[in-house]
Amino acid sequence: MNSIHKGSRSIDSNPGFLGLLFVGLLLAGVVAWYAGGAIRTARAAGPTKSAQDGVYTVEQATQGKTDYGEACGGCHMDDLSGSGQAPPLAGDGFSQFWDGRTVYDLYEVTRSTMPQDKPDSMSTEAYLDMVAYMLQANNYPPGKEQLKDDPEALKNIVIGKKSSQ
User: Does 139 lie in the same domain as 82?
Assistant: First the structure.
């Protein structure tokens, strides 16, 4: 049997050391197993839907277009192309910025910053309707249910990615 010698004592003649080594390796294995489970849980808790899954209705987007025209079109243009400091809300500019973010992120930025002269001045429903309109303008398909005032549900809808389901 090979031994590691330290002075005149060998490790294999010290049962306490082998026991500690075994417990240490066992503990490291348990920590690695637990961490792997925590990572899988965190991944599972991420966005579970995609805007590609049809997360708004045509009626909601239609109302959103009306609200947008009244509150946003002057700066972001009626075609959502943007102008000056108002960024585009459709096309490549929208996709590049919002890809991988959630519908909640889009709702919250819209609600808390727009209209620029009166942020958070519209109803929650109006902001959700305008988000539906922006999704429609960016070729996300409609579905059978409206976007609802449910922050947790909105945080679970990712923009720009295909559904993992």
Answer: yes
* pTM for the predicted model, two decimal places: 0.71
Verify that 72 and 126 share a domain, yes or no: yes
- Each of the 165 residues of the chain gets a pLDDT tens digit; together they read 554 444 555 555 566 655 555 555 555 555 555 554 444 434 445 668 999 999 999 999 999 999 999 999 999 999 999 999 999 999 999 999 999 999 999 999 999 999 999 999 999 999 999 999 999 999 999 999 999 999 999 999 999 854 444
Domain count, the chain: 2
Residues 56 and 40 in one domain: no
Question: What is the separation of C-alpha 144 from the centre of its chain, rounded to a whole number of angstroms?
Answer: 22
Beta-strand runs (E) in the chain: 5-6, 9-10, 49-50, 157-158
